[in-house]
Amino acid sequence: MEHTEVLVAGGGAAGMMAALAASKNEANVLIIERMNQLGKKILATGNGKCNYTNYYQSKECYRGDKPSFAHKALQKFGHKETINLFKSYGILPFDNNGYVYPITQQASSVRDILNMQLESSGIDIHTNEKITGVHLHINKKTGKRDSFIVSTDKSRYLAKKLIITTGGKASPFHGSDGFGYKIAIDFGHSLITPLPALTFCIVDEKYTKDWAGARTWGSIKAYSEDGNLMCKDFGGLQFVAQGISGIPVFQVSRYISKELSKGKKPYLIADIMPLYSEEELVYELLYRKEKYASYSIGDIFKGMLNNKLTAALLKKCSISIKRPAKELMDDNIKKLAYVMKNWHMDVKATGDFDKAQVTCGGINTSEINVETMESKICKGLYFAGEILDIDGICGGYNLQWAWTSGYIAGSAAGKAITQN
Ligand SMILES: Cc1cc2nc3c(=O)[nH]c(=O)nc-3n(C[C@H](O)[C@H](O)[C@H](O)COP(=O)(O)OP(=O)(O)OC[C@H]3O[C@@H](n4cnc5c(N)ncnc54)[C@H](O)[C@@H]3O)c2cc1C
Predict the structure, then answer these.
(1) Residue 20 shares a structural domain with residue 125
(2) Residue 373 and residue 405 in one domain
(3) Residue 225 lies in a domain
(4) Which of 176, 354, 404 gets mutated to test ligand 1 (max ligand atoms within 8 A of its CB)?
(5) Is residue 164 scored above 80 in pLDDT?
(6) Cα-to-centroid distance, 42 and ligand 1 (Å)
(7) Pick from 322, 351, 380: which residue ends a domain?
(8) Tens digit of pLDDT for each residue in 83-107?
(9) Count of domains observed in the chain
(10) Does one domain contain both 142 and 250?
(11) 16 close to ligand 1 (CB < 6 Angstrom)
């Protein structure tokens, strides 16, 4: 059995940062990753550009049953510390309205430099090796548990400190299949149900095929079954054959996932003409009906609404797109204006974990010491990254959470080794 002081289970963003922080504290570190390379998910982030943090930070950017857990951790190691540490590694930042990317606009820069740092720090890296189980090791002399036995599909390891950074369940083709939850549960931890977040919504309406491919600027509000506003956002909406997507939909999707998981029927309300009031839209349609009386109802929306959205809107309102504009009655005009401002959609599902950028839910943070990321249940066991019940909004906050929690866990595990 091989021995190590700190074993990092999972070589994603949190694991790479945890390994570097532990090694900086002079501990011997081994990182075990099931994929053929470290940080595969980092390569996919920010559309291949890696939005690794954000200058704008507030409590609302991090979610979970106890979002204050993230806030406290960020006070210890936040975006400024991340940017400075990355600069010291050689990753020069590029600020795009607060969204921070590497100046190269290549996610591979971040992953490769972290890899080079790991290698030059002398950290042992095992890839293509899957962790299959973890047990406590009992010291025969003292009768006390003093380390962890980590089994993989290739070997067994004795580790004094164990940091679990195996991620959540989102995007499993990058390696994260939720295995870490099993380890946590085996050690007595409880889980807030992991659900897909930062994903699109599947809408239970007949017209979605008509709007597929359309995009517009607009707002989206997510409501619970009993009509409580859970979350709202504004920005570029994207309409797809199964439903609705785009950053604003991603931002509200965790609340929809949670509501659906309780067997409830959440719904969305979109405003697809945010620059105009309902009254202005009524006036505009009346004017167009007069001006283009000899054209079809569909035609009077030209220059005002994307053709695909026009088709979906008219289908939703049960108005024939081909009928002459002069047949459009006043009450139909009022209805169309109302729907453009208050487009109701019943949501039957969100995109699944394959389509989600992150997991909401995870290990209950009330069982974790925020100062160290150490388990309050099992000494010497640490968790970091998406496996914990913290999820960020879009904009670099999920990677920031991985750096923050990974840094704190690695530093604490490393210090615990060197101070003993
Ligand atoms: C398409 C996409 C785009 C994104 N864009 C952004 C963005 O621009 N900005 C942002 O902030 N966030 C973004 N995110 C979210 C962000 O990438 C994640 O929240 C973050 O990478 C999580 O880091 P992690 O280390 O906790 O988990 P992961 O990155 O999932 O890493 C976990 C690692 O553990 C390994 N592992 C799992 N089980 C085992 C096992 N049994 N044995 C050994 N190894 C194991 C996995 O292979 C994986 O490498 C994006 C996510 C996706 C999917």
Answers:
(1) yes
(2) yes
(3) yes
(4) 176
(5) yes
(6) 7
(7) 351
(8) 999 999 999 999 999 999 999 999 9
(9) 2
(10) no
(11) no
- Token pair listed for 406: 């990974």
Do residue 188 and residue 316 come from a single domain?
Answer: no
Q: 133 C-alpha to center of ligand 1: Å?
A: 20
**What contacts 275, CB < 8 A, 6 or more positions away?**
217
284 neighbors 304 (Cβ within 8 angstroms): yes
Which of 166, 352, 383, 401 has most ligand 1 atoms within 8 Å of its beta carbon, as the pocket-test mutant?
A: 166
Query: Which CATH number is 46's domain given?
Result: 3.50.50.60
397 shares its domain with 299: no
Answer yes or no: do 107 and 60 share one domain.
Answer: yes
- Confidence at 140, pLDDT banded by 50, 70, 90: confident
Residue 420 has pLDDT above 80, yes or no: no
Is the minimum distance from the CB of 166 to ligand 1 under 6 angstroms? yes
Q: Which is the closest atom of ligand 1 to the Cα of 12?
A: 31
Is the pLDDT at 213 greater than 80? The verdict is: yes
Say what the pLDDT of residue 418 is. Answer: 87
Range of the domain at 308: 200-351
- Can you give the pLDDT at residue 131? 98
| Residue 276 alpha carbon to ligand 1 centre in Å | 41
Residue 413: pLDDT band (50, 70, 90) is: very high
What is the Å distance from ligand 1's center to 89 Cα? 21
Last-in-domain residue among 324, 351, 378: 351
Distance 115 CA to ligand 1 centre (A): 15
Report the distance separating Cα 345 and Cα 324, nearest Å: 28
CA distances from residue 292 to 190, 323, 337 in whole angstroms, order as listed:
63, 13, 18
Provide long-range contacts, Cβ within 8 A and 24+ apart, for 146-154. Answer: 147/380, 148/7, 148/380, 148/381, 149/1, 150/7, 150/9, 150/32, 152/32, 152/126, 153/129, 154/126, 154/129
72 and 183 both lie in a single domain: yes
Q: Is the CB of 195 under 6 A from ligand 1?
A: no
Whether the predicted pLDDT of 320 surpasses 90: yes
Closest Cα to atom 53 of ligand 1: 357
378's tokens = 């099992």
Using the mean position of ligand 1's atoms as its centre, give its distance from the Cα of residue 176 in Å: 7
Statement to judge: residues 214 and 343 lie in one domain: yes
